[in-house]
Structure formats: C-alpha cells, structure tokens
Specification:
six-stranded parallel sheet, homodimer, alpha/beta, DNA-binding, disordered C terminus, 14 helices, six-stranded mixed sheet, disordered N terminus
Chain lengths: ~375, ~375
DNA sequence: TGGTGGCACTCAAGCGCTTTAGTGCCCGAT
DNA sequence: ATCGGGCACTAAAGCGCTTGAGTGCCACCA
C-alpha cells in the first residue's frame, strides 16, 4: 500500500482523474494535460536526453538521421522547451521587458503605445520571445522593476521608453548587465551610454524642421510650440530644434511651452497664447490630444482654424480625422518604429553590438487645420523661401 | 592547471572580470553583478537551504528567531527568488498572460485597453505577478499563444478579453488546465464554463437600459444603435438588450447595426441611417470613436447635434470632450474593471473557486450631444414615463 | 529509566534543460 | 597488430528552488 501510493505520487500529473471523484479543487485543475518533456522524446526516439538536446538545438554531436528522428518525435508530441528550465540552465528567460512609467490616468490618451507595442510584438513573437509588460507611476518605480526582473531572472533585456534628461536608467541597466534598447534616444550629444545599450532614435530635429519649413513657407512668422513633459529628452530636443529653426530664419517670436500632454493643459496654454497681444498664427502641439483640445479652444475664442491660426499635431491618429477641421499632423510609422526597436534588442541578445539607429523622417500630412497665414501689414513677405 | 581551470569554471559568474581584457562581448556582459541565491543566504545564516526555504515562505519548520535571521540576511543580500527555479520546482511561473486579438491597425483607437491593463497591473504587481502580454491578429492565433505559453510553462493563468459568441477559448483553457478569467463575460445564459474559469461581467443590459431610459424620457422614439463587431459576445448582448428595452416600451423603430468599431464604418452607417425617410432621432454608438465620427457626419449632412439627432457614446474618454458638441457618454471605471479582473485571477491562482462577478452599473454622463427630441406631430407624448 | 512526541533542522531528490566529460566504436595510419 | 583519432552518443552534474523523508534533541509521561 505504501509502495503503491509512492509509485502513484512519483508519476505525478500522469494520473488521469482516476475515478469520478472529480472534485474541482485547485489541485485537481493543475496539469490536466501533461506537458511532454525531453525525457519523453528521448524514450520514444530511443536515445539519451543529451542527444535530444543536441538534436533540437542544432548542435553537433548527433547524426543527421537521428536529428531528424528526434525532431519528428518532438513535433509529434507537441513538445516545447520549458522556458523555466531553459532559464535555469543559463539560457536566459526568452523574455524581454517593457515598463511604462505613466500615471494611470494619463494613460491611453494617445494611441502611440499600443501601436508601438504591436510593432514590437511582431518581431518578438517571430523570435519566440515573450514580452513582460508593466505599468508604473514613475521612473523610480521603473528602476525598481528592472532590479526585480533582473534578480528574479525574468527578462533577458528591456525596451526603455520615454528617455529623459538625466536619465537614471542607462546606468542602472549597465550595472545589472541587462541589454537594453532605448526607444526615442537619449540626448543627441552623449551617443551610446555603456555597452549593451542600443538606441532607436526618432528624428525630432528633422520632424521639427519639416513643420517649420512648411509653416514658414505658408507665411507664418509667429509660431508657438505646445510641448510635452519637460523632463522627457525628446521634448527638450524638439524645443531646441525649434529654436534653431527659428534662428536660422530670423524669427524672433517663436516659443515653446511645456505641458503634461493632457487636453486640459493643452487647452489652458492655448487660451493664454491666443489672449496675447500679438497671438501666434501657428500652433504646434506635441501630441494629437492637445492639438484637438487647442483647436477647440481657438474655435471657442472665436478664432477660425485655420483662418486665424493654423494647427499642427505632432502625432497622427484617428483623432486627427475626428475633429473638425481635420488636423494637419506629422505622421510616423509607429508600428515600424516598434519593429525596429525590437529587432535591435533581438540583435543585442544574439550577442550583436550596441548600435544607434535612426528611423525615417516623419511626413507631414496636410489636412484642413493649416493654411497660408493672413498677410500682416507691417511685414513684407519678400523674404519667403 | 587543469584543476585550476576547472575550479574557476565551477565558480562561474563569481569571476569578476579578472584582468583588463574587458572585451565587451555578449558573454562578458552576462552576469556583471551576481545574483544572490538561497545557498548564499544559507551559508551566511548558518542553516541549510531547506531552512531558508521554510523561513522565506512562511512555512513551519523553523523557529521564529531563525526565520527572522534568515529574513534579515535575505534582505541584506537583496535576494529575490528566481522565478525560473520556482517555476521549475512546480510553483508556477508567477506570471499571468493577456493576449489581445486585434489587427494591428485597429489597435489603440480606443483608450480602453491601456486603462484596463493599468488596473490589472496594480493588483498583479502587488502580488508579485508578472504580466506577459501579446498582440495577435485573430482568435486562432490567440489560441496558439495559449498553447505555447502553457507548453513553455510561461504563465499560471490568463486574462481573456473580447469574449465571443461561440468562443473556442474557454474549452481550450479548460483542456490545458489554465485558470482564466474572462473579462466582459460570455453569453449570459451559459454561466460558468468549466472549472477554473471566472468571469467579470460588464452589465451590458443595465447599461443599455440606462441609455434607453434616458432617451425615452427625452422623448426619443426612433433610436438606432451602431454596434461593434458582431462576433463579440457583448455586442450581441447589447443588441438583445436594446430589443428588450424597446419592446418593453412599445417602440418599433429601434434597430441595431454592427460594424468593425472603426470611425469609417461608424460614419458610413450613420450616413445611411440619416438618409432614410424617417431617420432616427437618437443614435447610440458602441464606442467613442464611432460616436465622434457619427456626430461629424450628422453635422456634415446639415443635421444639428443634438437639435436634430442626439448622440450617445458607449465609452467615455478624452475624445468625448475633444469634439464639439461634447458627447454624452456611458462612463465606467475601466481601471477598476481591470483591478477586479486581476483580483479574480489572483484568487483563482490561490486555489479559490471560479466565480462570476459583476461590475457596477455604468453612469450616463450627459453632455451636449443629447437633448429632448423635437416633438413629432403624429405622436402624442402622453405615454411618457 | 525508557519510551514517545514534537520540534527545529538537515538531506537528498527532483523539476526540465544544458553542457562537460567521458565511452565505445570503427577506420585509417603506422 | 596497434594505436590514434574522429564520430555518435551517454552519463552525470548543475542551474535555484521546493519538499518529503529523515535525524537529533529535548521535554514529558508512565
């Protein structure tokens, strides 16, 4: 009896609900179907586990016919390597991490992230990599998550979004030895920070140049830029680029104002700007939500868009075609962006070198919210491009 | 020499970059800092590994003073359990999965998912559970992902979204023995499907009743419902509920039309409806994007919103306050929804029973897009509520 | 004084996989 | 005839953790 019980226990999950005592306890639920292991394959194929391992991992040490046989058996059994076991024996967790540091409330206002993630997934799932995802409140918490993931052996690398000025994350990841790719790039100057850190850069300077070029050509001379969070590296970059573009064209009434990306702040800043003595004739918003909110505010103040003021959104989305007038927007292929980033991370995990790649210049989709600036008396337009 | 090398190899990652031959190869990057293991704790605390395990897992078998000592050492060392090792020894992966079956393009139009996820996270991270996330094209691919996750030992349970009519997923998950909670609930009738399957139900019938109640009170008698994907369970439920509510009030000109949730289809259906002989005086849209698109179409056709036609969105978001007129919307606490679902799953993983819980009735936020129906000559309003 | 329990703790196996060090075999070179 | 070497494959250890089966010790009762 004792022996019988032992034997039964040893077989573990193989027991198939023997008897109709089907109490639906949590224990009973576990392992309803049994996962095949390499041992099963080895048995069926009549070789040792090592041989199976060699065969399945394209390692030398088995003949081609054995390799084929093992492969066939594995497929028949529907075998998949246990990531846990793999990770434990040093192969890594076959998972990459992505943490989003955003207060819950401001989440999901823009479509950027889901698109990005969807691009990321395309590449990752091709490579059999999982994506561990986490939303936290701030960067401090984000760093804690990296530490935890690292200590728990959960991820092989991470994708870092929303790079900041004075970002603590690269140093931490370097310390932990976690390969990472920064999406959106740190400051232009420093270049790569530590080995194992790739960057996928959006061309913020280029984007800004595209917008200013166009607005200038349309005769706009007083331009305001309603930017995003001041702590983000790309906000800083866009502001700097705008200043450069303005300087190049001798424009003096060109300014940036930072916000928290919310429709509320976007609206508030817009109201302040339009109430000025010589209000801007063109407004550049760092996201679609603020652009829409800003356009609505302008309309509310009796300013025609684009008659009195042109509006450009730095982010294209369905929203830009849901408000009237339709918003002119800078459109980038966010999905491709995600794909690129994931590709870089995969390369890094394969032992490739850290690189900095740049995504193509975004395109300006001109819709209804921009048009030629109303001629201003005291300024001739002879200095046009 | 041979011995020396062996010894060195055995110590593995403990080697600290001996010598300045710091080639930044992928190999060198691995394990820059060493993760402490239970063995380290055991050594320092002067007990066996088992004792450490007991101590850290609140299991009996160690005295309180030892437990405290072990805990202290663990904390000092910054120890965290390796999920890989845990998973391997049968404890589960401490991870739950969430897969989103949506074509990449239609992703991110609504804010629903990120909000939901953010709520989910709150609970999961409290419990030390990770969230493995995946975006796929369709339900078939989704099922494949479940299979893979299961075989790879990656997740302990999953959160299922977008339940469908004739949903293949519950059966699959049951077969695999993967605990799951369905977010949004399957058809009302069947109730729980298999053990280990909890449901968190949005009250679609209640929501529809709230909307129809209000519209009816405002005098609307011809109501159209621009619904979402016909294959989704909640679409079906809403349509059914509308029919019931209409029947109860003796309304005959009340119909539903399914779409793919896109602004395009929402607009198209709206145009068709408004071009009819006796167009509806009120339109209910199954999401915010279609509501906004529909309102724009109405305006384009010269119908005043809400003067000629009232608009209600079944989903509140920033968008509802970015278009003019502001959209009346059914508002639910999506973050709380996520929290609830994650809580149910956690309970399930703890061995709790499968349950079906219901979230509170959504509230109707009345904004500018609804008002009293224009009185219709051939119909007295004496039968009002 | 010997037995008996319970307590605090250790031993060792095992989870599924990788990997290093063998082992046996056959073939060609000496 | 013998040896070396390459090849196909096996044995076994180890990754970090859990867990059932001990083990030694002490208090307590008969």
């Amino acid at each position: 009896m004792g022996v019988g019980r032992e034997g039964q226990r040893r077989k573990g999950a193989q027991v198939t609900a023997n008897g109709p005592s089907a109490k639906d306890t949590a224990a009973a639920r576990r392992g309803r179907a049994r996962r095949p292991t390499m041992k099963d394959i080895a048995q069926r194929a009549g070789v040792s586990e090592s041989a199976v391992s060699f065969a399945l991992n394209d390692r030398p040490g088995v003949s081609e016919v054995t390799r084929a046989r093992v492969r066939r058996v594995a497929e028949q059994l529907g075998w998949r390597p246990s990531t846990a076991a793999r990770a434990l024996s040093g192969e890594g967790a076959a998972t990459v991490g992505l943490v989003l540091a955003r207060p819950a409330a401001t989440l999901g206002v823009d479509s950027f992230f889901l698109q990005l993630i969807s691009g990321i997934q395309e590449i990752l799932s091709d490579r059999g990599l999982g994506l561990l995802f986490q939303v936290v409140e701030d960067v401090t918490a984000e760093c804690a998550v990296y530490r935890r993931w690292w200590a728990e052996h959960r991820v092989d690398g991470v994708l870092v979004v929303d790079p900041r000025t004075d970002d603590p994350r690269p140093a931490l990841l370097d310390e932990l030895g976690l390969p990472a790719v920064v999406i959106g790039a740190l400051t232009d100057e420093r270049g790569r920070t530590g080995a194992g850190l790739s960057q996928v850069r959006a061309d913020d300077a280029g984007g800004m140049a595209v917008i200013v070029d166009r607005l200038y050509a349309l005769g706009h001379r007083r331009i305001a830029h309603v930017a995003g969070l001041p702590s983000l590296a790309h906000t800083e970059r866009r502001i700097r680029s705008l200043r450069v573009e303005a300087g190049r064209r001798g424009l003096s009434d060109v300014h940036s104002f930072t916000t928290d990306y919310s429709d509320t702040e976007g609206a508030a800043v817009t109201r302040r700007l339009l109430d000025r003595g010589a209000p801007p004739t063109a407004l550049i918003y760092d996201n679609d939500v603020m652009a829409a909110a800003g356009a609505a505010v302008a309309a509310g103040l009796g300013r025609a868009v684009p008659g009195d003021v042109s509006v450009v959104s730095w982010e294209d989305s369905a929203l830009c075609r849901l408000v009237r007038p339709w918003l002119t927007a800078l459109s980038r292929d966010t999905i491709a962006f995600g794909r690129l980033a994931a590709g870089e991370l995969a390369a890094l995990l394969d032992g490739g070198p850290a690189r900095t790649v740049q995504v193509p210049l975004p395109r300006l989709i001109e819709r209804e919210s921009t048009e030629r600036a109303r001629p201003v008396p005291q300024e001739s337009r002879s200095d046009d491009v």
